[in-house]
Each structure stands twice: as C-alpha cells, then as structure tokens.
Amino acid sequence: MESIKPLRIALTKGRLEKFSVDIFDKVGIDTEELKNKGRRLVLCDKKNNIQFVLVKAVDVLTYVEHGAADIGIVGKDTLLEEGRDFYEVMDLKVGKCKFALASIPSFNINEGYNRKKIATKYPRVTRDYFRKLGMDVEIIKIEGSVELAPILGLSDAIVDIVETGTTLKENGLIVFNDICDISARMIVNRASMKMRKDEIKSLIDNVQKVVNEFDKIPQKK
Amino acid sequence: MANLKKYIPEGTKDILFEECRSKIKIEDLIRDVYINYGYNEIISPTLEFYDVFNMENQPIPQEKMYKLFDNRGRILVLRSDMTTPIARIAATKIKPEMYPLKLFYSQNIFRVNEVLNGKLSEFTQSGIEIIGVDSIRGDIEAIITGIEALKRIGLRNFKIEIGDSQFFRQLTDNLPLNMEEKEQVRLFIQNKNIAGLREFLDNNSKIIDLNALEILQRLPELFGGKEIITETRELLGKSYGIKALENIERVYEVMDKLGYSKYISIDLGMVQNLNYYSGLIFRGYCMEAGDSILSGGRYDKLIENFGKKLPATGLAINVDIVVEALKTQGKTFADNKMEKIIHCNFDDLHKGYDLVMKLKEKGTKAEVSLMKKLEESFQYAEKMGVKSVINISEQMEYKFEDNIWIKGSKIITE
C-alpha cells in the first residue's frame, strides 16, 4: 500500500535532540530543516516523505501513543516514569546516564525507624525502586534542582538522573546506589508499526546500523 | 469546591449532530451485518456486581473499574467489558438445546483512565460472541463477520491481525524461568523491545534451550503477511508452537480463498492478556487510527468462572475509534434532511400535523414550524437549508429562489 501521508517522527527537545539529528543525518535523511529550524515546529524531509516534530519528552509519548506521530525518540527515564502503550523497538545507545539514589554523606538508608523522605522528579521510578527493596518511603515530588532537597533538610535523599556526577559533587552529595541505566530509545505507535511495516522496518534497520557503528566509537561527553 | 454544573467529567463527551448521526448509522450498519450472519442481540445491565468481574486473571484490573455501592453496601461496577457479562449470561441464563450460541451487543463500556491522557472513559463496543464451538471454525466465522462489518460501514485501509496466545505459552512452558521472568520476557515481546529481550536472553542463554532461544529472539519481528508462516515454520523445526502456527495457517488459507487475505496480517509476537485468551487472538488496525479498531480472541476458560464449561470466541469493534477513522477518510453519512416546513397559526396546528403525516405517506419529509410569524418560519427554513415553506392559512407554498421567498402554487390541504 503506497501512502502519501508522511512518516511523522517526534523528537525530544534539548539534550537528545543533537544525538537524534546526528543519527538521522547518518541514515541519509535530509536534516537541513531540523538544523535550521528557527521557530518552525514541523520540519520536513520532502524527498524521503518524513516529518519531524520537536516536543518535550513526555509529549513524545503522548503523540506516539495516540498515533499523531508514528515514531518517537525519547529517554528511557521518561519511559520508566510514564509507562504507556506502544512498541519500544530500539536502544539508540546515546544520551547515556543513570538513575541513582544520592544524598549528603551522613545519610544511612538503614538507620532509624522513621520513614525516609525521598525527593525526586520521578515518583514512579522511585516508588518501584523502593518497592523492590521492600522499603516503605515517603516520596516528595520536586520539579527541578532536586539536589537542594537533602541540603535544605526537606528530604533524606534524592532519586535523580546522574550523567557525570558533577552537579552532585559540587553540592556535596554522593551516590549511594545506582538504580538503572538510561539511554535514548526509539518508540513506535502500535497501529503504525502494522500499517506501515515496510517503511518503518527499513528505517529501524538503517538506524540500527548507524547505532551499531556509533557504539563502537567511544562516546564524547 | 468549584461548581461543575456546566461541565462533563474528563473522558466523557457530548456527541452532537453529524458525529451522533454517523455513530448511530455505523452502529446500525454493523448491527445489520451481525443479524444477517445469524447473531442475536442482547442488552445487559450497565451496573453489575463487582464479583462478576472479580476473578483470577481478570482482563481489566480493578483500579480501572468505576465502583459504587448499592443500598445494601454491596460493590457494584459500571461494566468494564462486555465479554464477561456475556459469559455470565451464557452460563446462567441460557440453556439452548444446541450450541453454538451466537450473540451480539452494541453497548457502552466504562473504564477509569489516567487523568488527561485523552482517552475515553465511556466508549461503545459493537461485538459478537460465538459460544460452544471449540474449533477454529468459530474463530474464522468471527473474523469474517468482523471484516464484513468493517467493509459494510465503508472503512478502507484496515487490517485484522491474527496471532495465537498459545504460541508464546508453548514456547515458554518448559523453560526453566520463574513466573516473574516469563512475564518479563512477555513484556519485552509485547512491546517489541528487541534490545531488552536480547539482553535478558543473553544473560540466561546458559539455561535456555538453543532452539527456543532463537525463536524467542525472533518473536518480536515475526509479523507481516503470509511469508511469516513459512519463515516461522523453518524456525520452529520440529519443536514448540506447531499447533498454534497450523491454526493461523488454516485461518489464513480460508481468508485467502475468500479473497480476504489483503485484510489479514499475522503477528506471532502478539502476546497481551495471555491469561484471558486461550487460542487465536485478533486485533484490527486502520491507517487513520492510532488505536486498535477491533479486538478479540478465543477465551475457552472464561465461562467456567460462572459454572459451565463452554468454549467461546468473539470480537468487538471499537465504534468511537471507527467513527473518527471514517471521518478522517472523508466518509460521511447522509443527513436526514427536511424537504418542507409547514407554517400555521395556532388554531391550524392540527392541520399542520395532518399535512406532515400525509406528506410522509408520499415520501416527503416535512416538519411543523414552531414559529409564530411566517417571516420567522422563512428564517428557520433558510437556516436549515429547506427551500419550501407551506403556509396553511393561505394554502400557499413558498419557494426560496435567488435568495428570496416567492409564492409558488396554491395547495389544497383539507
């Protein structure tokens, strides 16, 4: 079935944006508009009949789940926190970082009878982690600069994304436990995967080749 | 507390005019197909006891059900799926002399969704259930009826995907993995998370049989057309899942002979709701819809929960999603348009209604204007796109031509 509808790819704005553009560039997709986007929200590669949209991470999931975009590039952190319904087809192996439990050096997770307070931007990841440990904690949702919470005494520890650890170090916090690794993922809408199998499959295969090559070269931070 | 008098809850909608017309028309057309294929319509209560839905391996988790209490404090739910009530009915209310029992419904389902995720909490399913047939004849009948219904409403670019829940189960039955690990594998396959699956299998490669390992690894990619059957057969060799594959092949062959293979695709990695479905599973997709338009499968163990062992299969069309998809495809359903508007004084009202009935007998659609003045009736007619107004007191028909109302012919209304 030949379709005139362009294949729509939702990219996560910000940190993952550059990685995604690099990969699609290598795949042979025209990313000229993506690189010089100005204020446009929809960027096209007319030759390959592909449309890119740049949105916030959580919105990538929403667009793909509803089929408004066929494919999305988003961090595993967002996938773990949101847990929605679509295919998670590939680990792009870029934008690597990890979830970690961190706090001020005097913190001891097993000390005392009080329920520990954990500040985080990721309540679901935090809840799942402590459930696995069989611990009952109180979760406090913080929107940004989570590192502040234990310093100011709002919480006992934090669960957050750690990339290089610099921010933690500069604020006198240390990592107590690594929770899990994170990297960018490619997700696909369930109906799109079935209705446009050939287009999507060949895109996945091409991206996979690029990812394998990239993975051989050590990543620059 | 904010006053919510003017609002409706998230996940619900008021369905008006064009959309309402399409939805009703679509339901009617589907109903027509089901009746023609020999199904009997049933209506079940919107409220059921929670106990009806509370069973091992329930398909809808309890946090997704709307619950309330009756006057004796017992838990009620707004029905969260239709197959379970039908299983209850089939086991407790119907004692046919002979099976199969072919039932259908077109009813609303209620599910609690996460806030603001844009999904409907109340939606319509039109579905069929075939009870008392354990062979794939039942499944074939269900798929054909489903395709016929989708064709009848004029949907284009759709595919019904078939898989078999037994396929994964047979593959993993003898593997030395615990329940949790199997569930993990299932989730990787369901989400076509090839990287995650590979990592898990690599970590467990020492304990998993090589042949099973290879098949499991390939499972997320085993979807597509007929070629998948051949491909999988080579992969399987003489091991697991052969029966399930045979079922799929036989269904495919019938569809092919019917000329319906273009509507069929195969996904052996379709592994959702495994504890509920016990054989073939179906899912319908359409180019213009992000969500599935149809779902179903064989559920031979469900009716047992209500005290009778009966095999069964069925499927349901998600009417609201199909309505949207048809709209995107540009399909519209003809408006029930008025042809004449009758204006009359209060004293002549009976004559007006009498005329409406007479016209209707002749096949002309007319309505009595509720306006007091002839001018207002003209305006109303213009707004409704009706080009003829009959004024009873003058016994005169007015026509709308070149943007003005002109007297037409005299008519006898007595």
UniProtKB/TrEMBL annotation, chain A:
Q: Which GO terms describe its biological process?
A: L-histidine biosynthetic process
Which residues does the UniProt record annotate as the domain ATP phosphoribosyltransferase catalytic?
A: 56-208
Q: Which domain of life is it from?
A: Bacteria
Cite a GO CC annotation: cytoplasm
User: Has keyword Plastid?
Assistant: no
Subunit structure, briefly? Heteromultimer composed of HisG and HisZ subunits.
The protein's name is ATP phosphoribosyltransferase
Organism expressing this protein natively:
Clostridium pasteurianum DSM 525 = ATCC 6013
UniProtKB/TrEMBL annotation, chain B:
Q: Which UniProt keywords apply?
A: Amino-acid biosynthesis, Cytoplasm, Glycosyltransferase, Histidine biosynthesis, Ligase, Transferase
**Residue numbers binding L-histidine:** D81, M82, T83, R111, Q125, E129, Y276, Y277
Q: Which InterPro entries match?
A: aa-tRNA-synth_II, aa-tRNA-synth_II/BPL/LPL, HisRS-like_core, HisRS/HisZ, HisZ
Determine if Transferase is one of this entry's keywords. Answer: yes
Pathway terms, separated by semicolons: Amino-acid biosynthesis; L-histidine biosynthesis; L-histidine from 5-phospho-alpha-D-ribose 1-diphosphate: step 1/9
Q: How does it assemble?
A: Heteromultimer composed of HisG and HisZ subunits.
- Of which family is this protein a member? Belongs to the class-II aminoacyl-tRNA synthetase family. HisZ subfamily.
Miscellaneous note, as given in the UniProt record, is:
This function is generally fulfilled by the C-terminal part of HisG, which is missing in some bacteria such as this one.
Spell out the protein name for this chain: ATP phosphoribosyltransferase regulatory subunit
Gene name of the record: hisZ
